Please model this.
Amino acid sequence: MARKKATITDLRAMGMTDEQAVLFKRTGQYPKGFQVHHRVPIKAGGSNDMDNLVLIKNDPDHKLITAQQNSILRRHPNGSTVDVELPMTPPGKVTWPQSGQKAYQR
Model:
């Protein structure tokens, strides 16, 4: 799904070379250094549905978002019911960051 919706511009914006972007669009195989990320983590009730998945660069984007999410979730025992705000990529996006956007603020 992501390979059909992602544009070459979006793939370049997340750090792919033109060759990697074309290969991803053609085959759906993401290059080394990228992975599929759950917007809402499974342990926080997220699913493997396409609308909960986003293609993201491992370093620094996935590492930062996942570390922040895990830090928040570790404060609450499994099975507890609490409302928390998790850092996550915007809904409706298949790649992160998008062209013209920064992945995170320092």
User: Anything to note?
Assistant: The chain has a mean pLDDT of 78.
